[in-house]
Backbone:
């Protein structure tokens, strides 16, 4: 499970640290975004690595469009 504080709202992107991506399905949980509280998402690692590399200010991250995340109900 990958914990993300909140998506980057200005361009609707989720920054996922490169070192946190594991092969197969990756579960994403937002910990500080109140409107996403309790929701879980997942995405395949093969989709994550297709995204552009960016940074959160300290580590390299994949800039994954929020629309690529699949909500788990």
Residues:
């Amino acid at each position: 499970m990958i914990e993300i504080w909140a998506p980057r709202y200005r361009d609707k992107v989720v920054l996922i640290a490169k070192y946190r991506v594991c092969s197969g399905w990756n579960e994403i949980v937002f910990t500080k975004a109140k409107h996403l509280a309790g929701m879980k998402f997942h995405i395949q690692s093969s989709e994550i690595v297709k995204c552009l590399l960016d940074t959160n200010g300290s580590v390299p991250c994949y800039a994954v469009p929020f629309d690529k995340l699949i909500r788990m109900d």
Observations:
- DSSP finds one helix and seven strands in the chain.
- The beta strands are 2-4, 13-17, 25-30, 40-44, 53-55, 60-65, 70-72.
